[in-house]
Give the backbone structure.
Amino acid sequence: MKNTTVSAELMSLLVDATAREMKVAMQYMLQHTLFTGEDSTGSKAAGFVASHRSVFLPGKSLKKIAITEMRHAEAVAERISNLGGALPSQPLPFVVGKTLADILEIDKAEEEAAIKLYNQIIETAGKEGDDRTERLFKKILSDEEGHHRTFVSLLVEATKGSFST
């Protein structure tokens, strides 16, 4: 059902956003498994799940963010569908990383790229008078800025050695 007309440029940005959201949802979920699984002795990975500290825990944070990113992918895909566009058939390629610091650097950069892309979508949608897309991406942008803050905080903790691996 087509309820408005958008430029090819905006539609392309929306398709890119959907593929990006699918990518990071998968990336973060796979990373989450690295920090919430059991070790060879059957105990939870040290300090990640069982910790009582009042900081974000990498594994749990990654899982929560992955679920939010999948919800974003769904919302953007629905918007594309409402506009009569073609959905991406697969996510963008992703990288899991090997160490906690490596993963957090990768994820921080992903969120920075999302913030840049979503500001571009908000600006383009605003120029085109597409209020629904603009509102959707303002909400998603707020989430992405929160994810970025989480990854920055986790990276600070990781570099201080607050998490054992």
Q: What stands out?
A: The domain at 8-38+55-159 is CATH 1.20.1260.10 (Ferritin). Residues 100-128 form the longest helix (29 residues). Residues 18 and 73 are 5 Å apart (CA to CA). The helical segments are 8-34, 58-82, 100-128, 131-159.
